[in-house]
């Protein structure tokens, strides 16, 4: 597909997403699903940057999502405007990312994976111990609650996240990232300062995960247990979206998130928890047999067909 | 003084368990260079099997260990056949590790959800007639279940060490660990060695689960915490150092137990994380590594 | 494959300066109980092609890893243009002007050939200022190494010969002063070998010094100005191809293998 063609399709979709809620009443159900989808897309792009492009398996991305959600929630509650609370939340994610990334990214990949997983677990435990009761925003917030601003803020954030990933992957940094993913040592003897670019990718990924967390705190006013923002299921959902859509591609996480949200809407009510197990099976199958995800597989099939035709 | 002895006793008992938890994880990592994120879930499942056998038929948990090991051994074989062996097609070791992280994370997800469906997300533990029995050791109290757990952990560690150093199979395992290509050329059936190692690792996870459900408690969500423990033990022992797992576990257990004198025991997990990071920063080859 | 004195390659050459480019001094490295490299010293002059030979396990690849900074020596020092690079990280070593290829080819498989070369152009020594410039210069290097018409999306889809060329292209893109080539002839047929020899000579003519590890004796004796022989980690001979071929120690080390020339 030509570049301009892609771009015009993208603009069209974006315009539709921006205009439709204004001209017709979608109902809170659809709006809710859309906002959830936005959160997933941002989180998936965050994972994509460090996992898909840089090849560092982050099994605890929820830690960065969660800390930002929490910081945003409490800052907002303390009276800070939401447009300050969310960036501050993101900043806290970056600090956390630096704390775990600097010691582990120097070492082999699995230490990073397990370090991030451990961080997420520890964060969940700490938060569950500190906040044993439910937390929520004051009643005045829920009285004026509307999904519209959440929807548009989410849409803007999605655009930001995708733009960030797009721009980075077209710069020098992006080139280093994919080189590191393909062969760390070869990248190093070709002059790439591997550790530096891993850290850069990880910190930017942290910012994006933080944005997703901030958006979640803005959308959800009350938590029965705030530690649920550290639940491993967020990590799994982000991984699933990226892997299914296609890791290391710009569209992959978006397609994967849409797939994920649509499928869970269909199956969550009919199958209950069993649909999560189905997701798990699907995830394993894709990792083993379709390393390039949905996009990659369609691409490959397309190539095969054209080759056969020739 | 009593409090100190008590703390050390608690540390030793739980430390031995930590060593046991690390063993199976370390075996798979050392031999196959796969990281099995599902190890924690295997432990939990082992615990639930013992719990089930106990509540359905009243079988003492420690007597059910052989049965648990048997079932878990087969789960390990299935894990290898369905999930891990397809990854051997990737030529580069880093890629295999990354893929194994991902797929076993998926396995964890599935297993944790299955366990929640089967047994709900409630916390379970086994209470037998002797659960409350304690001994007096230098004025401190040592629980009978804890003592049994300690003995079992030591027995399993010694048995694994003997298996690896004194048997033909162990020779194959060590050959495959060193250089799978060369091992396969000199007639070692590498695939089969991997398969059985995976079974043994899962069986050892099962034993750990039985000890945990008898001495402490289990819940479906605890798998990842136990995995973290296993990981810290590996990092302390140094990757692939099966012989140092138990000492490393004891060190971790003692550090945690002593820390409870100062900090709430609810924060043991963050403490493990801090230990994990400190060791990686200052002794990346493990506490027992000599020289560089 | 033709290399007609391209400006890119020649820029690395500082004419008129005669000095030893690389000095390896009493370097040792052991793995476990095995001395992979044992007290090896060697110097390299600008513009030479030095052949590095030795039976399997002689320590050739270890020496490459030591020079390129991938592993650090236990003892000894490595100097490049009088700068001590013993403790230097591989990426820095590359930026100083030492590039290498791997014995088993390791291009960035999921990147396009162009991207592979661009990594070298962007991160090597004298890096390109902009991505656009890097792209342009990389295309030039691709055509110099005969890869311009290989329109594949991923380098992993290339054949073995092309992947080897790509690795050389990537290494050249870092604008090295010294290039370490590790067994690039293995697996090539006669025509491909002739092309590879022409490429190596072209690289030298553009002013780049080379160390070439090779198993194909005829080739290495033919292209090298000087031969260094390693055996079980030790340097046993260093001299002109003719002198080395008649060296008693060398013949002993190779006893049982094919005659050298």
Protein architecture, described:
The complex is a heterotrimer of chains A (310), B (292) and C (261). Chain A is an all-alpha fold and 310 residues long. Chain A has a domain at 28-229: ABC transporter involved in vitamin B12 uptake, BtuC, CATH 1.10.3470.10. In chain A, 80% of the residues lie in helices and 1% in strands. Chain A has helices spanning 3-23, 27-53, 62-77, 82-104, 109-130, 139-143, 147-169, 172-182, 184-189, 194-219, 232-245, 252-271, 274-289, 293-309; strands at 135-136, 222-223. Chain A has a two-stranded antiparallel sheet with strand order 1-2. The longest helix of chain A is centred in the N-terminal third of the chain and has 27 residues, at 27-53. Chain A is globular, with a radius of gyration of 20 Å. Chain A starts with a helix and ends with a helix. Chain B is globular. The N and C termini of chain B lie far apart (39 Å). Chain C is of the alpha/beta class. Chain C folds into two domains: 19-97 and 179-256, Rossmann fold (3-Layer(aba) Sandwich), CATH 3.40.50.300; 110-175, no CATH class. The model of chain C is unreliable at 1-17 (pLDDT under 50). Chain C has ten helices and ten strands. The chains are: A mainly alpha (310), B mainly alpha (292), C alpha/beta (261). The interface between A and B is large, with 40 and 41 residues.
Keywords for this entry:
heterotrimer, A: 310 residues, mainly alpha, ABC transporter involved in vitamin B12 uptake, BtuC, two-stranded antiparallel sheet, 14 helices, C: 261 residues, alpha/beta, Rossmann fold, six-stranded mixed β-sheet, 10 strands, 35% helix, disordered N terminus
Record the SSE blueprint.
The complex is a heterotrimer of chains A (310), B (292) and C (261).
Chain A: H1 3-23, H2 27-53, H3 62-77, H4 82-104, H5 109-130, E1 135-136, H6 139-143, H7 147-169, H8 172-182, H9 184-189, H10 194-219, E2 222-223, H11 232-245, H12 252-271, H13 274-289, H14 293-309
Antiparallel strand pairs in A: 1-2
Helix pairs in contact in A: 2-7, 2-10, 2-11, 2-12, 3-4, 3-5, 3-10, 4-10, 7-10, 8-10, 11-12, 11-14
Chain B: H1 2-32, H2 39-57, H3 65-84, H4 93-119, E1 134-137, E2 140-143, H5 144-166, H6 168-178, H7 180-185, H8 190-215, H9 223-237, H10 245-259, H11 268-282
Antiparallel strand pairs in B: 1-2
Chain C: H1 7-10, E1 20-31, E2 34-45, E3 49-53, H2 60-67, E4 75-80, E5 83-84, H3 90-96, E6 98-100, H4 113-123, H5 131-144, H6 160-173, E7 178-182, H7 190-205, E8 209-213, H8 217-223, E9 226-231, E10 234-239, H9 241-245, H10 248-253
Helix pairs in contact in C: 4-5, 4-6, 5-6
């Amino acid at each position: 597909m030509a570049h301009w063609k892609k771009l015009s399709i993208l603009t069209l979709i974006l315009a539709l997403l921006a205009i439709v809620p204004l001209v017709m009443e979608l109902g809170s159900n659809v709006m809710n699903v859309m906002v959830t989808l936005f959160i997933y897309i941002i989180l998936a792009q965050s994972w994509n940057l460090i996992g898909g492009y840089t090849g560092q398996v982050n099994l605890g991305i929820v830690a960065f999502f969660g800390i930002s959600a929490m910081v945003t929630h409490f800052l907002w509650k303390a009276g800070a405007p939401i447009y300050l609370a969310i960036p501050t939340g993101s900043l806290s994610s970056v600090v956390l990312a630096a704390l775990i990334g600097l010691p582990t990214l120097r070492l082999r990949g699995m230490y990073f994976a397990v370090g991030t997983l451990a961080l997420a677990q520890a964060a969940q435990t700490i938060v569950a111990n500190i906040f044993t009761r439910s937390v929520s925003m004051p009643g005045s917030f829920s009285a004026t609650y509307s999904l519209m601003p959440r929807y548009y803020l989410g849409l803007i954030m999605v655009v930001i996240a995708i733009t960030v990933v797009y721009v980075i992957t077209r710069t020098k940094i992006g080139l280093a990232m994919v080189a590191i993913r393909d062969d760390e040592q070869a990248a190093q003897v070709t002059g790439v300062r591997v550790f530096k670019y891993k850290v850069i990718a990880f910190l930017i990924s942290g910012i994006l995960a933080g944005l997703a967390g901030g958006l979640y705190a803005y959308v959800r006013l009350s938590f029965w247990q705030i530690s649920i923002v550290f639940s491993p299921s967020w990590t799994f959902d982000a991984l699933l979206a990226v892997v299914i859509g296609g890791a290391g591609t710009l569209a992959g996480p978006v397609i994967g998130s849409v797939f994920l949200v649509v499928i869970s809407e269909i199956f969550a009510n009919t199958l209950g928890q069993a649909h999560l197990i189905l997701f798990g099976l699907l995830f394993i199958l894709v990792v083993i047999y379709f390393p390039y995800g949905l996009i990659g597989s369609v691409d490959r099939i397309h190539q095969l067909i054209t080759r056969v035709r020739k | 003084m009593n409090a100190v002895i008590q703390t050390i006793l608690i540390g030793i008992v739980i430390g031995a368990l930590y060593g046991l938890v690390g063993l199976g994880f370390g075996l798979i990592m050392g031999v196959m260079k796969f990281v099995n994120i599902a190890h924690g879930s295997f432990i939990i499942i082992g615990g639930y099997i013992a719990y089930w056998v106990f509540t359905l038929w009243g079988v003492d948990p420690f007597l059910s260990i052989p049965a648990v090991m048997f079932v878990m051994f087969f789960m390990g074989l299935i894990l290898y056949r369905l999930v891990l062996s397809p990854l051997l097609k990737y030529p580069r070791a880093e890629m295999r590790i990354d893929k194994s992280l991902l797929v076993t994370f998926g396995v964890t997800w599935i297993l944790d959800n299955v366990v929640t469906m089967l047994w709900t997300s409630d916390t379970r533990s086994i209470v037998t007639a002797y659960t409350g029995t304690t001994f007096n050791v230098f004025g401190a109290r040592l629980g009978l279940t804890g003592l049994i757990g300690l003995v079992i952990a030591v027995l399993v560690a010694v048995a694994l060490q003997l298996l690896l150093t004194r048997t033909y199979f162990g020779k194959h395992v060590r050959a495959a660990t060193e250089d799978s290509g060369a091992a396969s050329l000199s007639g070692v059936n590498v695939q089969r060695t991997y398969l059985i190692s995976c079974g043994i690792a899962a069986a050892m996870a099962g034993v750990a689960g039985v000890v945990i459900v008898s001495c402490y408690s289990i819940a479906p969500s605890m798998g990842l915490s136990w995995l973290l423990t296993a990981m810290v033990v590996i990092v302390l022992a140094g990757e692939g150092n099966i012989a140092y797992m138990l000492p490393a576990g004891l060190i971790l257990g003692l550090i945690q137990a002593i820390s409870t004198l100062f900090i709430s025991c609810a924060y043991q997990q963050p403490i493990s994380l801090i230990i994990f990071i400190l060791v990686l920063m200052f002794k990346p080859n493990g506490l027992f590594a000599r020289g560089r | 494959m033709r290399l007609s004195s391209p400006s890119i390659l020649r820029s690395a050459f500082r004419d008129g300066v005669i000095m030893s480019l690389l000095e390896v001094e009493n370097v040792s490295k052991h793995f476990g109980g095995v001395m992979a490299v044992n007290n090896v010293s060697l110097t390299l002059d600008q513009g030479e092609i030095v052949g590095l030979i030795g039976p399997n396990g002689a320590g050739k690849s270890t020496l490459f890893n030591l020079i390129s900074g991938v592993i650090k020596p236990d003892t000894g020092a490595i100097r490049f243009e009088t700068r001590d690079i013993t403790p230097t990280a591989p990426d820095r070593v590359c930026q100083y002007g030492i590039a290498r290829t791997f014995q088993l080819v390791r291009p960035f498989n999921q990147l396009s050939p162009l991207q592979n070369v661009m990594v070298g152009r962007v991160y090597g020594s004298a890096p390109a200022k902009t991505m656009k410039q890097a792209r342009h210069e990389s295309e030039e290097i691709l055509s110099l190494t005969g890869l311009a018409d290989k329109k594949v999306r991923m380098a992993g889809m290339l054949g073995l010969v092309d992947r080897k060329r790509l690795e050389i292209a990537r290494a050249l893109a870092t604008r090295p002063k010294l290039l370490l080539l590790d067994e690039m002839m293995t697996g090539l047929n006669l025509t491909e070998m002739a092309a590879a020899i022409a490429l190596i000579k072209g690289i030298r003519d553009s002013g780049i010094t080379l160390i070439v590890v090779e198993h194909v004796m005829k080739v290495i004796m033919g292209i090298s100005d000087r031969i260094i022989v390693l055996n079980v980690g030790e340097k046993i001979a260093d001299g002109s191809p003719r002198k080395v071929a008649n060296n008693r120690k060398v013949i002993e080390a190779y006893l049982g293998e094919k005659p050298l020339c």
